[in-house]
Write a structure and sequence with these properties.
Elements lengths: L2 H14 L11 H8 L3 H13 L3 E4 L3 E4 L4 H14 L4 H7 L2 H19 L3 H17 L4 H21 L12 H9 L3 H18 L12 H5 L2
Antiparallel strand pairs: 1-2
GO molecular function, one term: DNA-binding transcription factor activity
Keywords: DNA-binding, Transcription, Transcription regulation
Organism: Marinomonas polaris DSM 16579
Length: 221
């Protein structure tokens, strides 16, 4: 793993684990000192996190961890609850054994990340499961919209979620795959709706004051 990739993974994990809370400022000089690299290297990592919407970079203000509003969090989950169950019938028209096997590999990866307490990986893997399912519907417009909603959900789960938000408490994805294998359309739609509602209800929508982050303790070598 490259040094840039290692720094990126450490910072992403810190955001998802709430060690870097929403709104926390990310000064390049203090981060470069903590990681023992140049400010240019830190800037590249911050720009990558900004492209993924985990970080905001403002001119003359620097970088900070993105803070989605509570209203945005609820709107994103409500949008997914409206759309994703409705894609199930079209998805089933394309469903086959090969798809089932591919998605079961994804579920295995999710479980491995959950067992290893890798919350950042769990959030990214569950997002991939959902938008890859949406792509099978054949409706590319809605599938692209779901993909964007899943990316925004990743940030929301990092800001307001708990381990239960991406674990079995909200429903094991393998249960959905069993239902899809049996072609039970209405049951699959109900499962997806309940699954997303559980994720929404797992969010802890409360604002936390910015903390004085000790970057040397968090990332120092």
């Amino acid at each position: 793993m490259s040094n840039d990739e290692n720094i990126y993974r450490q910072m992403l994990n810190a955001i998802v684990e709430h060690q870097l809370p929403p709104g926390a400022r990310l000064p390049e000089d203090r981060l470069s000192e903590a990681f023992g690299v140049s400010r240019t290297g830190i800037r590249k990592v911050l720009q990558r996190l900004a492209l993924e919407h985990f970080v905001i970079i403002e001119k003359n203000k620097g970088a900070q961890v993105n803070r989605p509003s509570e209203a945005e969090a609820l709107e994103v989950l409500d949008s997914r609850i409206l759309i994703e169950p409705q894609l199930i019938p079209a998805l089933l028209d394309h469903w086959n054994t090969e798809h089932s096997e591919r998605f079961r590999i994804m579920v295995t990866e999710e479980k491995r990340a959950e067992e290893a307490n890798q919350l950042a990986d769990s959030i990214q893997l569950t997002a991939r499961f959902h938008y890859e399912l949406a792509k099978l519907s054949g409706n590319q417009v809605l599938a692209s919209f779901v993909e964007q909603l899943c990316y925004r959900s990743s940030l929301i789960l990092a800001a307001y979620g708990t381990r239960g938000s991406v674990g079995c408490e909200c429903g094991d994805h393998s249960q959905l795959l069993d239902i899809l294998d049996q072609g039970r359309k209405d049951e699959a739609k109900t499962w997806m709706s309940h699954h997303l509602k559980h994720i929404k209800s797992s969010l802890i929508l409360e604002s936390k004051p910015e903390e004085n982050i000790d970057f040397q303790r968090l990332f120092g070598r």
